[in-house]
Design goal:
By secondary structure, the protein is an alpha/beta fold. It has 17 helices and 14 strands. The chain has 3 domains: 26-188, Winged helix-like DNA-binding domain superfamily/Winged helix DNA-binding domain (Arc Repressor Mutant, subunit A, Orthogonal Bundle); 209-283 and 385-424, Periplasmic binding protein-like II (D-Maltodextrin-Binding Protein, domain 2, 3-Layer(aba) Sandwich), CATH 3.40.190.10; 286-374, D-Maltodextrin-Binding Protein, domain 2, CATH 3.40.190. 45% of the residues lie in helices and 16% in strands. Strand 3 (168-171) and strand 4 (174-177) form a beta hairpin. Helix 1 crosses helix 4 (82-105), helix 6 (123-135) packs across helix 8 (149-163) and helix 6 (123-135) packs across helix 9 (179-205).
Length: 445
């Protein structure tokens, strides 16, 4: 069978045309989970309330889609093989997250236990709910999915009956998902990523290390970090697809919570919730930056009044640079700041052709030293850290873990010169095939 597999339907479409489409049925996954737990088809059929031929057919279909056997059949029963163990870990996480999402939604545990409700949810029902939430209305969701509104409404109402919970409400602009349903959709979408990652791990165990990693890069700082490692990463993993989304901190953290990105790189924010964890890579203090030959570069001591005499380029609203600029001049005479941008190329051009000033981190400045320089002002407190933000309880795949490992090795300090970074780089060996490398992550207190 074709060794390359990939899935579409719940999340992102793979960029590799050689990989097959694979949209696993939640019910088939539930049957697999039961067979793995019960070590047999007959006991699984009793637990799932299905006939034994139906269980056999579900497992056969799943293994056909995976392109690999997941179970070893013996006289004493059916047991997970090497690939089954890898995939089963992800299906366990899938159903744990779905059950928790159902409980938090308020789905009653009687007369049907929540654990059994998970096996009654269909892919079309989940796809419909997610599309309604993301597109804002039934009409737009139907267009996005390429189905009729009648079909979409049928799937939406079937899900309500399955969960015994109202998920939609009538508003002035039409029928929309309730806030609780929107949060449920987010959690289910994130849970379904476990199956994508499980398939990638099975492929890695077969020697096909690839898949897709989606990186959220905060404007400026995040892009600079990526620029220093991305070429090396894709050379190590030539079959991997890398997708990079750029945006401000609020956007990136929202995408991370929704499962649209795997990891976010950039300046770390103070811990605001328990669902995200942060790993600091290096302290990177803010410095006031100007062009080479700027009048302030010749002064030995610079005051805030000196800085206020010049026009500034500041960050967009919500950006860390914007917040730090506003705190720097809080209660003092403020400079003119009519240009707001987080485009590093725009900042470079604006400063290189004028006497404007801006704030950059020391790490960002490392990549602009040919055109820009720090003026003698500071220190600017507090000192931010550049690092990684991840979901709490996230289990990275081999590809994701290797990317984190590479980032950790390359970002060795906030003031390390670019040439020293390249000089100190050592090849990163591949991890053991079919394993997930544990990443030690500690939440910022």
């Amino acid at each position: 069978m074709d060794s390359g597999i990939r899935k579409v339907g719940f999340a992102m479409t793979d960029l590799n045309p050689q990989r097959r489409e694979f949209s696993p049925s939640i019910r088939h996954l539930k049957v697999f989970e039961s067979v793995a737990h019960q070590h047999g088809f007959r006991r699984a059929s009793e637990e799932c309330h299905l006939s034994q031929p139906a269980v056999t057919q579900a497992i056969a279909k799943l293994e056909e889609q995976m392109g690999v056997a997941l179970l070893e059949r013996r006289a004493s029963g059916s047991y997970l093989n090497e690939f089954g163990v890898i995939f089963h870990r992800r299906t366990q996480r899938l159903f744990e997250q779905i059950e928790l999402a159902l409980i938090e939604l308020g789905v009653p545990n009687v007369p049907v236990p929540v654990s059994r409700v998970t096996g009654r949810i269909s892919r079309s029902q989940i796809r419909s709910l997610i599309s309604i939430v993301e597109n804002g209305s039934f009409a737009q969701a139907a267009r996005a999915l390429g189905v009729s509104q009648t079909s979409l409404q049928r799937a939406a109402r079937d899900l309500e009956r399955t969960l015994r919970m109202p998920l939609y409400t009538q508003t002035a602009s039409g029928i929309m998902a309730t806030p609780a349903a929107a949060e449920f959709a987010r959690k289910i979408k994130l849970a379904l990523r476990e199956i994508e990652w499980g398939i990638d791990e099975v492929e890695a165990a077969r020697g096909n290390i690839g898949g897709e990693i989606v990186i959220g890069a905060m404007l400026l700082a995040g892009s600079v970090v990526l620029a220093s490692v991305i070429n090396e990463f894709v050379s190590i993993y030539p079959n991997a697809n890398v997708r990079i989304l750029n945006g401000n901190a609020d956007d990136m953290l929202r995408y991370l919570r929704a499962g649209d990105v795997d990891i976010v790189i950039g300046l770390l924010r103070e811990a605001e919730s328990d669902d995200l964890v942060h790993e600091s890579l290096a302290d990177t203090p803010y410095v006031v930056v100007a062009r080479h030959g700027h009048p302030l570069a010749k002064k030995q001591q610079i005051t805030l009044d000196d800085l206020a005499d010049y026009d500034w380029v500041i960050g967009t609203p919500g950006a860390s640079r914007r917040t730090r600029f506003e705190k720097l001049f809080d209660g003092r005479r403020r400079p003119h700041a009519r240009i707001a941008t987080c485009s590093q190329s725009t900042i470079r051009s604006l400063l290189a052709q004028s006497d404007r000033l801006t704030l950059l981190t020391s790490y960002e400045l490392m990549y602009e030293e040919d055109a820009l320089t720090a003026v003698p002002f500071g220190p600017i407190e507090p000192v931010p850290s550049i690092g990684l933000t991840m979901r709490e309880n996230w289990l990275p795949t081999q590809l994701q873990a290797s990317f984190i490992d590479l980032i950790q090795k390359r970002i060795v300090g906030s003031l390390t010169p670019t040439k020293a970074l390249k000089k100190s780089a050592a090849p990163v060996g591949e991890r053991g095939k079919g394993t997930v490398v544990p990443i030690k992550i500690a939440a910022v207190k």
